[in-house]
What does this fold into?
Amino acid sequence: MLFLVFVIGLNYWPRYMPIYFWSDYRGEEILKDLELIRDLGVNSLRIFLLTKVFMNQDCNVKEEILDLLKDFLNKSHRYGLRIYLTLLVGHMSGMNFDIIGKSIYDEESIACIEKFVYQLASRIKDHPALEAYVLSNEITVYEKPPSRERYRHFLRRLYNAIRKADPIHKIISGSGLFYPWHIGAEPETEAEIMDYLSPHMYNYDYDIMRHSLAYIFKLKHSISTEKPVIYEEIGYSSHQYGDHGQYLFLRAITYSILANGAHGLMIWCFSDFNKEEQLPYNNHPYELGFGIIRSDGTLKPAANIVKELVRLDKEYGLSEYKPKEDPIGVFVPRYMYEDVPFINTISEKVDRVTTVKVLHQSFTMLKMAGYNPIVVNEDNFDERDIKALIIPSIPILRAVTWRKLLELVENGLTLYYSVAISLKDPHHAPTQLWRELFGVTPIQMPGYIAQPLNDIVLELNGNKITIPGLKDQPKYTVHIGVKVRPIDAEVIAENNNEPLILRKRIGSGEAILVTKPIEYQLIEIVDVNIKYKPYVIYRHLLSHKVKPVNFHNPVVEVVSVFNRSDELMYLINHSYNEAYIADIEGEPIVMHGIRKDQEYIIEPRGVIVIAKK
It folds into this structure.
């Protein structure tokens, strides 16, 4: 079940009849689409089966429809395409299509679906066009799981049914990993069962840099499970942002995904549609415009990105290259992927949506500081080879986690923790090791939580940094900090004459405490990362431990990837303005900008790839 190629693919419905085409199958029209797809050079398609069209009332595969699927696979094989077959639909483009008439998570439903997928896999497992089975399309959107354990049970039963029929081909859930909104759809949970992970993302944010780099955090979080990852859906509609906006978004994000260790990507989607009267498009008109090809078959600008990626893969073999990552971890707490009573179940002390936003902010600050971090979680952080660990505005960790952190600091780790008290339920403490780990004692008045997050102003190495305060925040999502008195900690920075950043050296390591949840404070401020430069804090605190890139422009992500003998360097401008970068050696093989010797001006959302020997 290894990846033999770097996946450059598209999610596919025919131009003539999206969603409903199995009931109006036109082989000649499909051939016209496949010719366009061949000309683009993509190697993979993800296709979808409407369950009620393929499964009868007895949970058996309908033979007459199966013949159409085989015809499609035959045509795809003729054009050298690898097919990712989505078995249960389910949810599609803002509409749910009934699968079985009742909850898919009850035992009777699971047994029926199990029978269907086993039969289907048995019948097509030997087809040369088949690359992988995708269990569903965003099944947790179709129906949220009643519990994480029930979702595991559902995935495991269907996985085992397919694997019994077909011991060879890869299997994935197709859920999109829509955590934290859908319990169970986390990388950690699905990696227990699936052969590989395939995030979907359609992100919206107040900050340009965080918006873009959140896609890469989700990728790195998925990679942290040590399962291969294909980014299965990315894209925006031309009816939202125009053809040029769609092109700019996809240009930067596709290169960033491939540079950061994905085994491939699939754009949503192949074509626009001209079916205004048809559901779900009548209700959701923007869904008509996600294609990189128009409904008349002409190419949008985004199609050129696909051609460019195909050319790069043919010349350099992208699957052979692996990214160089810095030994810095961004920490995902256990309550994001496991049930913890009275923390995220029964009653809740934490807000998981706030936490994922905070993790996006921290990851963005590290990238803008010139680092290529990894993601770790509360169950594996002590097994990863890291020199620094960032725990950003996380309210609750387990007691044994703090003890492990103390041991790691004694043995050389640089630990950064910004305190967060969650007002969703403030009856908790961030740590039991205030004195031993951080060299402080908390001194705020007992039970008093009126601590507004006002402006923070600090100076580090001559850099003045301002973090605007928060006003009118919903009380149930607010995080506040703590007041502390140093005992054997060094005060690095103050704010309003109170300790803000403190350091305690322990053994060969150090523990850095920030008394305000600064990453939380940053998540609701418009374009905060470019305007206020909070990444300077990380660069200042970490650069003695892990060296950042020298040719530093904070809006340009720099990722070096290596095969056995060669290096490619990706320079990716995540902003919508031109970006200058200098002192770059090597020859450009992808060029969205202007070069003068070793200096480059990169176009908005542009990419330059440098070949270095």
